[in-house]
UniProtKB/TrEMBL annotation:
One of its GO terms (cellular component) is plasma membrane. Keywords: ATP-binding, Nucleotide-binding. This is ABC transporter domain-containing protein. One of its GO terms (molecular function) is ATP binding.
Length: 231
């Protein structure tokens, strides 16, 4: 089953007399549970592609279906996005005065009947992303960049997304941290059958089932040393 089908997509931004054509008759198909890495130069359109998939900006031409829904037919896009999609960037969105665990329980009164249940879920997810028990009551400022990103990720996972869009998530991490975060991502995505698209500037990503490169408005499949155009 496909989680994403994007067919014959064109996208351009026009400002005054300048026309910036980002995508030209581009197509993309992603299976459920697949991890796809998309690389591309600075400004090649990686973020725009993820935003189109998340129904945050429409293509000029072509059709995108995500989780079986034609994005143009979705009425309340932000509700739909919140329910099904996790969108993360390299910026963590942690709040200085909340502890690690409180970040996952935000908006929940500790007197609520399901507080204990959510609290257990939060602990489980934090453990799954590699946060230790003694970090649960720490504040963000005492944490490393990679742990901050793991907590941001854990927060998103609390919403049970079926699709994760990770835009240059690891671009400020060193090799070792990147490997650690990637390993975490693979473990939970396999466990929960989450489909993932990651982007990055011209780097490789060992964990991906498939690697694509965005070049001249098209996606090319990268297979070892060979490249071929998808559409
Ligand atoms: N809302 C917008 N209006 C006009 N131009 C835009 C808009 N969003 C992006 N662009 C332009 O489109 C191009 C691609 O931007 P995008 O952020 O998608 O690329 P990217 O590959 O993610 O780049 P980066 O590596 O900088 O994150 C850039 O030239 C950018 O300035």
């Amino acid at each position: 089953m496909y989680v994403i089908t994007a067919n014959n997509i064109s996208k351009k931004y026009i400002s005054g007399n300048d026309k910036n054509v980002l995508f030209d008759d581009m197509s993309l198909h992603v299976h459920e549970g697949e991890i796809v890495f998309i690389s591309g130069d600075y400004g090649s359109g990686k973020t725009t592609l993820l935003k189109m998939i998340a129904a945050m900006t429409p293509p000029n031409h072509g059709k995108i279906k995500v989780l079986g829904k034609d994005l143009l037919t979705i009425q309340k896009r932000s509700d739909w996005r919140l329910k099904h999609i996790g969108f993360l960037t390299k910026e963590d969105s942690l709040i200085p005065y909340l502890t690690v665990k409180q970040h996952l329980l935000m908006g929940l009164e500790d007197t609520a009947s399901d507080f204990e249940l959510f609290s257990e879920d939060a602990k489980y997810i934090l453990t799954m992303v590699g946060i230790s028990e003694d970090q649960l009551n720490q504040f963000p400022e005492s944490l490393t960049k990679v742990d901050r990103l793991k907590i941001t990720l854990a927060r998103v996972l609390m919403g049970n997304p079926r699709l994760l869009l990770l835009d240059e998530l690891t671009s400020e991490l060193n090799e070792e941290q990147r490997f650690e975060l990637y390993r975490t991502i693979v473990e939970f995505s396999r466990l929960q059958n989450i489909t993932i698209i990651l982007t990055g500037e011209n780097e490789s990503c060992d964990i991906a089932d498939r690697m694509l490169k965005l070049e001249n408005g098209k996606l090319m499949e990268v297979n070892d040393n060979t490249k071929f155009i998808l559409h």
